[in-house]
Amino acid sequence: MFAYIMRRMFMLIPVLIGMTLITFSIVHLIPGNPAQVILGETATASAIEDLEESMGLNEAYPVQYGIYVTDLLQGDLGTSLRSKAEISKEIWPYIAATFELTLFAMIFAIVIGVNAGIISAWKQNSWFDFLAMLFALVGVSMPIFWLALMEQWVFAQELSWLPAYGREDSRDPMASITNLYVLDSLIHLDFGRTITILKHLVLPSIALGTIPMAIIARMTRSSMLEVMNSDYIKTVRAKGSGQFLVIYKHALKNAIIPVLTVIGLQTGVLLGGAILTETIFSWPGIGRYVYEAINYRDYPVIQSGILVIAFIFVLINLIVDLLYKLIDPRINY
Prior knowledge:
Layout: H1 2-28, H2 34-39, H3 45-55, H4 61-73, H5 87-90, H6 92-122, H7 127-141, H8 144-158, H9 181-187, H10 191-228, H11 231-238, H12 243-271, H13 275-280, H14 286-295, H15 299-327
Helix pairs in contact: 1-15, 6-7, 6-10, 6-12, 6-14, 7-10, 8-10, 9-10, 10-12, 12-15, 14-15
């Protein structure tokens, strides 16, 4: 297991180098003088020179890349041109907001999707199988922005059951410790606030988790059907094992690998920033943060945001690879 982990870690090195090269090149791909484009046509020559010096644009390309990588290794992502704040400190609350939303969206998607796929495979060609796969097809096809707006209209406006915007009640903000609001409320032992924060999470989590849920359900059904028709499952059944034990102990363990791949990919996509969901629900996540930086031509923030999103995606894939080995020790590269 240790050798497997080390091989996977070493395989990340060229990927990470490629990520830094691509994100570093963003500024240099701008037509013309990058400093002029960032500051606008009305910028003075002295302002352009100052920005070139602060961003190292007056150095040779390899020297600039070396400075960029050195700063990254020291945890320095640069300074935002708009807020003048250090990006490494400014970006974390946005990452935490997206992480919290993605976590609850994926819990919804995994719990509903995996169990719907299992029951559909178990009750193949039944009315439940038909309805579940029809629902999954609708879920994959449904635009996120339409579902989000319908949720706000029905559950927030018409029924007034759930809040439609933000992470908590703006009238009574909480002193944040980790910027993970559910965790912070539990640390403060404020369980009433925990319930309020969870209510704010319900609608965006469902909107964000519907497509992954549908994909997971379809993949689980397909994988379970293949496993449940295998000889060793027939042997387990012949030994008199109960249906629940056959499905959840024997069949699911062998069918989960392709499902785990889908879960990992979908989690990486959602952690990369769900701009539509975050915009509609006024959720201050990483996707919205990068989108606003694009509007303001804040290229250091765009660079750092893309790098962080790419790193998260790579990290999720690494975790999935390690889970493969944990679930099935026969897997080896």
